[in-house]
Specification:
The complex is a heterodimer of chains A (324) and B (368). Chain A is 36% helix and 20% strand. Chain A is α/β, with parallel strands linked by helices and 324 residues long. Chain A starts with a strand and ends with a helix. In chain A, helix 1 packs parallel to helix 7, helix 3 runs parallel beside helix 4 and helix 8 packs across helix 12. In chain B, strand 7, helix 9 and strand 8 form a beta-alpha-beta unit. Chain B is 45% helix and 9% strand. A six-stranded parallel sheet of chain B has the order 1-7-8-4-3-2, with helices on both faces. A two-stranded antiparallel sheet of chain B has the order 5-6. Chain B contains 13 helices and eight strands. The chains are: A alpha/beta (324), B alpha/beta (368). The interface between A and B is large, with 41 and 49 residues. The complex binds thiamine diphosphate and magnesium ion (MG). The site of magnesium ion has 6 residues of chain B, from strand 5.
């Protein structure tokens, strides 16, 4: 099995889906000739032509609306928004159109598609190249949200997203685009959506995260282990609809839980998970669920370190649940 | 295909540094021409040094404006201090003409405690309330309707001022471009929309951005004036912006200016142009047409500039720059409070709590 980084794995998944399904098309700003600013669509135009892989004018609402039209007619668009920070001009198309089309038409006009977009901080990108906007979209019923944590995951989850019959927002943790490496089979494989992954089993505290944060959680679990604390680490993978069974079972087992994300705390997806897990597992919990998240601020250029959750802070939250 | 009306390209100084037949230099003192040329050269010194600094890992990011300097240096000169500018990011010459100091510019890049933005933004996001330079924001095109709004405010306050937005040709594809022009047209706002058509939006060439023959023609649909200018001709830029300003303050409405220029540099420190364009075929012809070449010839012919002066000036710029960098590197980053301030005018309970929690964490992490 070759070792790939996340960009290579995503690129490989796109090539495989282009090869298998002539209805798959990919486009976005700089996605065609250049192959994308992160080179995720590299080689697609060269191999499959400008009809299937093309540059979009700089217009995010155009990209999302155009994808809607392609999907209505039966193609399978895999659109790219260059940075998730720049997806907001497309908010109306995503929230009012893409999310609602199946429902408002009585099921006549579903729009299965994938919108891929790099997201997340930890890269000295400041306000507009660091955001983690996933929770905005969790509030719009009708869109699936998937976030991979490594190259193997990225390929399998992207192929499953392309196959899925619903619109999927696929957030790619750009911080680990090149640094995260894994053995990735060159053949086609899917990782089912809505299945969380128990990355490490443990008995005392459940630690939930996704994307680049998953690795910070693994480091935090190591720190905790050194102090004799046993942590179960869960990579959520699909944010909507999430795998409640795996979460419930883990929380029932450990009785303690910490949720970590980069996005600001207020109305971050941790709030939703915490509320739901409290409601369903109240009598099994030994302590209130803790959140370790980005601050309720914008993402500041000069304070990347101060902003980003790190293993020590996560360990602190873990101890809060143990010392309650 | 419907044929767009052919619009002439306003030009005064040709590529050999000669005035076009019947054309004359805009009304300005000779010393000012020299000063503006020196600003162009200074911007070049800064751009090439900052690029190297990024490669050395001393700054996070940079964007150069090589080849496009006349568009913004000329525009800023044609405006008055009370006029507002809404830049995109590739217009630092305008900032210097308006009065932003080199130290302020460099401090912003370093995001240190001397940065007017308190270290919050990536490099190339300068701005100064005192100088009527509206602080840059990364999302493309957002400044265009904002500029229309500011211009309308100037109109209803009966001020002798205009608001000008800079943007690239790629940005004209954004919805905000169309919203801004439409609003400005409807309200006859004293706005100037200055498009630097530099041929490229990262890797995407002009002809894949729009099927229109040019950008200026888009003004027609919004009922506003649309004009084209040779963006590498400092004199023509000054002239056309002055005309647009005059039109605006007289109550005759906004103007869309399309300045034809070329991005000789890469988009930023993050891309590799050799993967999408040919230095020889694409860039080659424009190297001959860039603004410094023709100004140098013009000033040389007038006896106003010599190669000796140029060498001395570049050395002086280099020294000033290195001094500014040294100061910036030795200036500490802003106090941690700046992370939580300015979300609102005052800190609500959650930010107060989070701030004290962060202080505890930083102590625990040996960072305080
Ligand atoms: C809303 C939005 N979408 C995408 C981007 C990413 N982006 C930054 S610069 C750029 C190209 C802009 O090209 P142009 O307007 O021609 O300006 P130039 O860089 O040529 O000066 C893109 C796509 C962004 N900053 N904002
Ligand atoms: Mg451009």
């Amino acid at each position: 099995m070759p070792i790939m980084n996340m960009i290579e794995a995503i690129n490989n998944a796109l090539h495989l889906s282009f090869e298998r399904d002539p209805d798959v098309v990919a486009f976005g700003e700089d996605s065609g000739y250049y192959g994308g600013v992160f080179r995720a669509t590299k080689g697609l135009q060269e191999k499959y032509g400008t009809e299937r892989c093309f540059d979009a004018p700089i217009c995010e609402q155009g990209i999302a609306g155009f994808a809607f039209g392609l999907a209505l007619y039966g193609l399978k668009p895999v659109a790219e928004i260059q940075f998730s920070d720049y997806m907001y001009p497309a908010f109306d198309q995503i929230v009012n159109e893409i999310a609602k089309s199946r429902y408002r038409s009585g099921g006549q006009w579903p729009v299965p598609m994938v919108i891929r977009t790099p997201y997340g901080g930890g890269i000295n990108g400041g306000l507009y190249h660091s955001q983690s906007p996933e929770s905005f979209y969790t509030h719009a019923p009708g869109i699936k949200i998937v976030i991979p944590s490594d190259p193997y995951e990225a390929k399998g989850l992207l192929l499953a997203s392309i196959k899925d019959q619903n619109p999927v927002l696929f957030f790619e943790p750009k911080k680990i685009y090149r640094s995260s490496k894994a053995d990735v089979p060159t053949d086609y494989y899917e990782i089912p959506l809505s299945k969380a992954r128990i990355a490490k089993e443990g008995s005392q505290v459940t630690l939930i995260g996704w994307g680049a944060i998953h690795h910070v959680n693994m480091d935090a679990a190591k720190l905790a282990e050194k102090e004799g604390i046993s942590i179960e680490v869960i990579d959520l993978r699909t944010i909507i609809p999430y795998d409640i069974e795996t979460l419930d079972a883990s929380v029932k087992k450990t009785g303690r839980c910490v949720i970590v994300h980069e996005a600001p705390r207020t109305s971050g997806f941790g709030a939703e998970l915490s509320a739901t897990l409290h409601e369903r597992n109240m009598l099994h919990l030994h302590a209130p669920i803790q959140r370790m998240t980005g601050w309720d601020t914008h993402y500041p250029f000069s304070f990347d370190y101060e902003y980003y959750p790190n293993p020590k802070r996560i360990l602190w939250a873990i101890k809060q649940t143990l010392e309650f | 295909m419907a044929k767009a009306p052919k619009l002439p390209v306003h030009q005064i100084l040709d590529e050999n540094g000669e005035l076009l037949k019947g054309a004359s230099v805009p009304d300005m003192p000779k010393e000012d021409i020299v000063e503006l040329f020196k600003t162009i050269l200074k911007v070049r010194v800064i751009d090439s040094r900052m690029f190297k600094m990024q490669r050395q890992g001393r700054i996070a990011f940079y964007m150069a404006t090589q080849g496009e300097e006349a568009t913004h240096v000329g525009t800023a000169y044609a405006l008055k201090p009370q006029d507002w500018m809404f830049p995109q990011y590739r217009e630092h010459g305008a900032a210097f003409v308006r009065g932003l100091t080199l130290q302020q510019f460099i401090n912003q890049i370093f995001g240190n405690s001397g940065d007017l933005n308190k270290g919050r933004q990536m490099p190339m996001h300068w701005g100064s309330r005192n100088l009527n330079l509206v602080t840059i924001s990364s999302p493309l095109g957002t400044q265009i309707p904002q500029c229309a709004g500011a211009a309308y405010a100037m109109k209803i306050k009966k001020k002798d001022s205009v608001a000008l937005a800079f943007f690239g040709e790629g940005t004209t594809s954004e919805g905000d471009f169309h919203a801004g022009l439409n609003f400005a047209g409807v309200y006859k706002a004293p706005a100037i929309f200055f498009c630097r058509n530099n041929g490229w939006a990262i890797s995407t060439p002009f002809h894949r951005q729009t099927a229109a023959e040019n950008i200026a023609v888009k003004a027609v649909a919004y009922g506003i004036e649309g004009v084209r200018v040779d963006g590498n001709d400092l004199f023509a830029v000054i002239d056309i912006v002055r005309q647009a300003r005059e039109r605006a303050v007289k109550g005759n409405g906004p103007t869309l200016i399309e300045a034809l220029t070329y991005r000789l540099s890469s988009h930023s420190t993050s891309d590799d142009p050799s993967a999408y364009r040919s230095e020889e075929k694409d860039d080659g012809p424009w190297k001959l047409k860039e603004p410094a070449v023709r100004l140098r010839k013009f000033l040389g012919n007038q006896g106003l500039w010599s190669m000796k002066e140029e060498q001395d000036w570049e050395k002086a710029c280099e020294k000033e720059l290195l001094d500014a960098i040294k100061v910036a590197e030795n200036t500490p980053k802003p106090e941690m409070d700046a992370l939580f301030e300015d979300i609102f005018d005052e800190l609500p309970w959650n930010l107060r709590e989070q701030k004290s929690q962060l202080i505890t964490f930083l102590k625990n992490e040996g960072k305080r």
